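Example (one chain per record):
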Amino acid sequence: MSADNKIRHASCWVVTDGSAGMEIQCIGLAEALGLDFKVKRIKTTKPWRWLPPYLWINPLKTLDKRGDILEAPWPDVVISCGRQSIPLNMAIKKASGDKTFTIHIQTPNCDAGNFDLVIVPEHDKLRGENVLVCLGALGRITREKLHEAGEKFEDQVAHLAKPRVTVLVGGSNRCYDMTEDVMRDLANKLAALHRDTGSSFLVTTSRRTGTDNEAILKSALEGVPHQLWTGEGENPYFGYLALADALIVTGDSVNMVCEACSMGKPVHIFDLPGGNSKFNHFHQSMREKGYTRPFTGKLEQWNYPPLLETQKIARNVEKFLKLHFSQR
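Predicted structure:
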């Protein structure tokens, strides 16, 4: 069987702790590679979850049974993301006799040589022969998915006047604070934008937004043409991306910013209090490359090639996979 056929028929595990931002990146890459994958959501036990990967003794035996258990037969490919998955990825490679091709997304807190391939965002400093660098985060977005979702939700938003502005609202995390005052500022700017331009809004919130902030947003948008999705019913996220004339995104999520830029439409970043060196570097890079601009309460118009990093990275991963399978 040729290396190409081996890739098409390869089995794959996506291994994370279940965090949405990590899992989406792994699944996005697996889908872009055309792999038949299974999602493995692990739960690690004390004290191992607190220790660096090289101190874990028999990692495969330290898993909490409330999560997925990892055992033979081992897959042809493992794609992992997140600190908890690092020792498990390494253990699978060892248990398979180095037959499993191992990929880790994001900078691991260990030697990158423990994996066949490591994929890091540009704002991380890790570089090496087995390191691929992407701009921002990987994801599941493709032109085909966006087109399909746009057609699916088009009738639901047909009554909303243009310009239609999609607003992706995140929330507080370890680096940023989405306080009630910050939400009021965003909500008031959206209401003012409607008064100035006649724009309507397609708004989604996240689990991190919080009920109090959602209430502030709902109140401010009363009387403003909009649709607001807060987690109930079918998720219109891809449809809202596809149907936007412009986008406003809170700056707390690399994933959301990169997904917004997949359309090639104006993406305005609403800054939140906080940040760190990695986030600051990411946002600066996105501005300098022409993908985003700050949201100051007004809409701007500019063009750039759609950001589809997952497909680009997948083409490079295929080269490594072909070499791996040609040697088996």
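Caption: The two ends are 10 Å apart (CA to CA).
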